[in-house]
Amino acid sequence: MSILFSPAQIGKLELRNHLVMTPMHLGYSLNGEVNDQLIEFYRARARGGVGLIIIGGCGIDRIGNAFGMIQLDDERYIPGLRQLVDAVHAGGAKIVPQLYQAGRYAHPALTGKPSVAPSPIASKLTGQTPEELTEEKIQEIIASFVKAAIIAQKAEFDGVEIIASAGYLISQFLSPVTNQRKDRYGGDLEARMTFGLEVVEAVRKAVGPDYPMIVRVAGNDFVPGSNTNSESRAFCQALEKAGVNALNVTGGWHETQVPQLTMNVPPGTYTYLAYGIKQAVSIPVIACNRINSPELAESILEEGLADFVGMARPLLADPDLPNKGKSGQSDRIRPCIGCNQGCLDNIFRLKPVSCLVNAEAGREFEHGSIGQSVDRQQILVVGAGCAGMEFARVASLRGHKVTIWEESGEAGGQLALAAAPPERQDFLYFRNYLVNACRELGVTIHYNIKATPETILSAVQNGEFERVVIATGARPITPSIKITEGVKVLQAWDVLLGREKTGRNVVIVGGGAVGVDTALLLAKAGTLNSDTLRFLMEQQAETDQELHQLLTRGTKKITVLEMAKGIGRDIGASTRWSMLADLKRHKVNCLDKHTVLEIHPDGVLVECSNDNTQKVIPADTVVLAIGSRSENELYNALQDKLEKISIIGDAAKPRKVLDAIHEAYSEGIK
Ligand code: SF4
């Protein structure tokens, strides 16, 4: 890694490397103050080797802040802020806060006050119409930015970042969609830039010429009628003239319909936005969004697409990513898989951020590092799914000797299932991480071994094991629907894992996550893959319209039936909208509030609960995706016979991967 881990500079700020932890909304402070949870979270990231940490967002006032953020609007916060700064400095990193004002994205139900914006245009995030800012109120907000910057300086932060992206207040002024003012703050692009530039100029004046200042900009709003990279370049040039030292280039607004952070976004996709800005300015540019490995970061810097690389979620997943990358141990990095289940989905539910792959994230203040157990044991884990392997990993770190018996020929369990649909292979990266981590820690995994109550009892009685953990997972449910001969009826798990093939006319029973995954897998069969698309585009072999058709027109007709209201209700908010859009693009027929009455030779007889009408949906294959039930027979047979036996993961109760991992971690550190 020749560039990524070499020393770097932003203005007069010297950094140990070119890796920036971009701001993340964590939801860890409920009273605006820095606390131990926040300090230990960032201390771990600083120790992990990142060069610069941007703390985000930090409220500059009480009308534009959000749930769970620290505040920079009062000097009484300075002692706590200093503790945070000291902790990060002790780890060798530099630290700046992001000055945050959400404008119309602020939720009045949380702030207790009406939100404000350049124009009274309802927010797509909150559904609320903000109050139009008067010129006097605009000056008050500029003064709040200034006050926050001075507090940051007094707290000995190494600089400040101002957010002018993501659809927050400054970007609302920049956009013709949300700024329809007739005064000097509205009109053409130059006028719309006025507010952002006044904020930057006022902050610069207050903090002095040398205090590092970064602005986070949208490389493209990805909102119809709003700014693109072209307008953003003009704004960035003006920011450079106003004394900004670096530009942190992200993607679009929160309300965009263009996915930016979901697993289906190829890593590094949005680097071109940073490169567009870099070509227009001479100050450093930070590229971010779905850059999740040191190798990708290095290639971006080598190609000259950006001057710094920003990562947030990858450092939530593994705080030691920089040190591991620097020491040539990238294969030991616990990968962020873009699932959003612990981070963004939690924030949408007003819960503190956690991480699917890293149960320690946000709990550093509780556990510190995993310590050695005083009572080292020989442990048998039955099942090498994600819960079994995570338990084995953590228990091994505690000093226990762990053996896993796995019935099938490979490890991973539900992770392999989750990774089956197109563009979901990141789940396998996590599976691979767990397998490697177990191997390195000396966990022995025996494959193709069927555990029975007798074999387990015998092994315990022979002294091979002192403790048994059952992690046997779950199996799919078969419903009690009348099924007549003639239609192929399959389980979704078998289809996802490629063990069974469907016909051309498929009805999927069950519209939860597994049903949606199966529908997308089948709907995409026969469509263009990315290599073919690129080839055809380069050769100009087809029209754009035909290429679009070929991308979305598969070979199968798919219907999803769901008894309740809504499809994909168990998918997290950050991902669900994009999967539903994908179903629509691929013309999957989604019918909620439809109960299956019978599967017979012509297809599926259903009843709609809206009007109680019945109809037959033709099908040559019916795929069942109606849930799973625990594989707990071993536990039930042994719980009274063994003193030290426990059950974890789906074997205890079917659950999300995140819950299975976190529970396994907690069991492992006991
Ligand atoms: Fe990445 Fe998922 Fe963890 Fe979020 S919860 S940091 S997306 S692995």
UniProtKB/TrEMBL annotation:
Keyword match Flavoprotein: yes
Keywords annotated in UniProt: Flavoprotein, FMN, Iron, Iron-sulfur, Metal-binding, Oxidoreductase
Domain FAD/NAD(P)-binding per the UniProt entry, residue ranges: 378-642
InterPro entries: Aldolase_TIM, FAD/NAD-bd_sf, FAD/NAD-binding_dom, NADH:flavin_oxidoreductase, OxRdtase_FMN_N
Coiled coil (residue ranges): none
Ranges for domain NADH:flavin oxidoreductase/NADH oxidase N-terminal: 4-330
GO molecular function list: FMN binding; iron-sulfur cluster binding; metal ion binding; oxidoreductase activity
Protein name: NADH:flavin oxidoreductase
Species name: Desulfosporosinus meridiei (strain ATCC BAA-275 / DSM 13257 / KCTC 12902 / NCIMB 13706 / S10)
Upper classification of the organism: Bacteria, Bacillati, Bacillota, Clostridia, Eubacteriales
